[in-house]
């Protein structure tokens, strides 16, 4: 669901709630918010020293913030409502840009901003696999393993019942990918290295 927020002639912002995750909303801005990134903030403490993230965490219901070029993605607390919150977030983004204050100060452009290393991201995704994903698909004899994490790309392999399964891409794109982007927004691409042409295709025949 996409909605144009009140327009300032100098800056326009379009808010789009994720269909896959109703607690996530992308704010596309007509000018660069901050070059580079992504820069991820998952708490008020991590946002310290970054003016835009500080402004957004001051709003009730904001759970995390991702800033990348001209897009600001905001995750809200499950109990919060986007009604009113979207406009408030848009106003905070617009106000900061009009003041000329940098969205992210140059000084904290390191791990303190929440920008995690590939090893840190891998550990977070592995925890997700261990805690939720593999427990769920184990009932079908399936498993997802991390092959590598490199420059925003997550390389995985699907084994057991997931290999050669026609529903594996549904599992990957509509389930696992949504969860990964929630815990590790740094991941911009998930690459399935599985050879689905081999194996016994235990559940679904093509």
Element layout with pairings:
Blueprint: E1 2-4, E2 13-17, E3 24-29, E4 34-41, H1 44-47, H2 51-57, E5 62-69, E6 71-76, H3 85-99, H4 118-137, E7 142-150, E8 153-160, H5 168-183, E9 189-192
Parallel strand pairs: 8-9
Antiparallel strand pairs: 1-2, 2-3, 3-6, 4-5, 5-6, 7-8
Helix pairs in contact: 2-3, 4-5
Written overview of the protein:
The chain has 206 residues and is of the alpha+beta class. It has 2 domains: 2-113, 2-Layer Sandwich (Ribosomal Protein S8, Chain: A, domain 1); 118-192, Fe-S cluster assembly (FSCA) (GMP Synthetase, Chain A, domain 3, 2-Layer Sandwich). It has helices at residues 44-47, 51-57, 85-99, 118-137, 168-183, and strands at residues 2-4, 13-17, 24-29, 34-41, 62-69, 71-76, 142-150, 153-160, 189-192. A hairpin with a 2-residue loop joins strand 7 (142-150) and strand 8 (153-160). Helix 2 packs antiparallel against helix 3 and helix 4 (118-137) packs across helix 5.
